[in-house]
Amino acid sequence: MASAQYKKLFILRFVAYLSILTGILVLAFELGPVASAEFNYRMDRAFGVSHTLPPQVITSSGQNTAESDQAQSGFGSVSKNESIITPVSTDYGIVIEKINANAKVIPDVDPGNEREYQTALAQGVAATIGSTIPGESGNLYIFSHSVDAPWNVIRFNAVFYLLRELEVGDRIILFYQGKRFDYIVFDKTIASPSDVSFLSNRYDKPVLTLQTCDPPGTLLNRLIVRAKLQSS
């Protein structure tokens, strides 16, 4: 009798411990990307490490002139506290040096179509349908934010998780069809989820609008960062 009770207690404990361990692993999987982004950012700040994209990454021939010039000269202009960023995509990509964000941009995504934007966010960040292309006058609206489930809110938010660290004057770099476009932040705003004015805004100059959730990993508000074209 005692042996049967012991076995029953052992099974119950085993199931309980297994459930706890599974929960911890699932939580670590979901929080991993944002936790890693936060940790790496704080470590970089503590040790003075900056992430840099060379002024000339590509030419019309596709050659990385900045890196090749360094190699030919024999002098490394990059200090030990600088980390060179290699763009994920020069066909359509975004790089934010300050927060070391580097992702592919998926164009023409309907933010009202859950299945469509989930597919896009699994590959990078999404440019909403109707957005202008980099360098053209109008509103280029890019988001990295899911609203269907809490675990996806956290996971898909990882690319723009540190967007809150951007300030007026910071640089955002876009690549499109092998060309580089530098934008400078001029505004950062917390908006209600029901406020769609930033999405519907139309401009007579090239404006880049980035959207993520605020506080990070929640559905409470939207963090909107806007930048204007500096050069291309």
Commentary on this structure:
It is a single chain. By secondary structure, the protein is α/β, with parallel strands linked by helices. It folds into 3 domains: 1-48; 49-86, no CATH class; 90-232, Sortase, Chain: A, CATH 2.40.260.10. 32% of the residues lie in helices and 30% in strands. The chain contains 5 helices and 10 strands. Strands 3-4-5-6-9-10-8-7 form an 8-stranded mixed β-barrel. A two-stranded parallel sheet has the order 1-2. The longest helix is centred in the first third of the chain and has 46 residues, at 2-47. Mean pLDDT is 80; it is low at 59-76.
List keywords for this structure.
Sortase, Sortase_dom-sf, single chain, Sortase, Chain: A, 5 helices, two-stranded parallel ribbon, 3 domains, about 230 residues, eight-stranded mixed β-barrel, alpha/beta, 10 strands
| Largest sheet descriptor | 8 strands, mixed, barrel
What is the CATH architecture annotation of the largest domain?
A: Beta Barrel
**Rg result:** 22 Å
Helical proportion? 25-40%
Sheet/helix structural class? alpha/beta
Q: What's the overall geometry?
A: globular
Tally of strands: 10
Number of helices: 5
Number of individual domains: 3
Protein name: Sortase
Keywords: Hydrolase
InterPro entries: Sortase, Sortase_dom-sf
GO molecular function: hydrolase activity
Question: How would you concisely characterize the structure shown here?
Answer:
This protein is of the alpha/beta class.
Question: How would the blueprint of this fold be written?
Answer:
Layout: H1 2-47, E1 50-52, H2 65-73, E2 82-84, E3 92-96, E4 101-109, H3 114-121, E5 125-128, E6 138-143, H4 150-156, E7 171-176, E8 179-191, H5 197-200, E9 206-214, E10 221-231
Parallel strand pairs: 1-2, 4-5, 6-9
Antiparallel strand pairs: 3-4, 3-7, 5-6, 7-8, 8-10, 9-10
Helix pairs in contact: 1-4
